[in-house]
Known about the structure:
CATH superfamily: VC0802-like
Radius of gyration: 15 Å
Distance between the termini: 26 Å
Shape: globular
Structural class: alpha+beta
Oligomer: single chain
Number of helices: 4
CATH class: Alpha Beta
Number of strands: 7
CATH topology: VC0802-like
Amino acid sequence: MPGITDLKLLLAGMKPDLVEGEFVYCSVPASSLADYIHMNPVGLFQEREGVTLILPVEVARQAGLPAEPAMRMITLDIHSSLEAVGLTAALATALGNERISANVVAGYYHDHIFVPAADAGRAMAALQALSVV
């Protein structure tokens, strides 16, 4: 089933869900990825400088990786298309208006927004307000 592309439908039905726990972004050398893949990162992205892992804070700490800044993950409970136009901009604008940084990661089915842990409540309120516009 293809994802939704209509921005109005995406915003109206996005149902932001604050995922349990805190997460951090860490970078490891690509050559050592095999040493870290068993940690089951919620996100992984290869860059020239290394591999970015998004890990639960406690997992990163146990591995001796940097565990700051702590982020919370908000998952949009709607199947958005990878070809949808304007969703990331709408999310970033709503959160930017509240002075909340946002790191958006698109999965095949859902979009996930990582925000500073201290701002998670305000971020949820901003996204919930956006979904009723």
